[in-house]
Design brief:
alpha+beta, elongated, 4 strands, 113 residues
């Protein structure tokens, strides 16, 4: 049975390139990584991705940096829907008024000629 590979994430970035954008894969036991950024002498075979195998036999292998956990701050709140609706309505009205003025200016210019 083949080892399953896990996708990198912010909590567990790639041990080879350090990226966490889900383009790389790794073995959960940490013995190997399939990196899409750093070239090695062992290209991945099959599939549609272009990546290279990196094996970590050395116990002093690079350890990925783990992103710190960010706590949600209680002082952050969502605006009430009435406020959001009012802001969006004002923006829409403003854009509509500008478009209407541009049309009137264009009409005046066409009527002059």
């Amino acid at each position: 049975m083949k080892d399953r590979l896990s996708r990198v994430s912010r909590r567990s970035p790639c041990a080879v390139c350090g990226r966490s954008d889900k383009a790389c894969l790794f073995r959960p036991d940490g013995s190997a990584a399939l990196c899409s950024q750093r070239v090695s002498d062992k290209p991945a075979r099959g599939g549609c991705i272009q990546a290279w195998w990196h094996y970590f036999d050395d116990p002093a292998r690079p350890t990925p940096k783990v992103a710190p956990k960010v706590e949600a701050k209680p002082e952050h709140f969502r605006a009430p829907i009435e406020h959001v609706d009012g802001v969006l309505y004002a923006e829409h009205t403003k854009k509509w008024m500008i478009a209407r003025c541009k049309m009137k200016v264009a009409e005046k210019l066409l009527c002059r000629s």
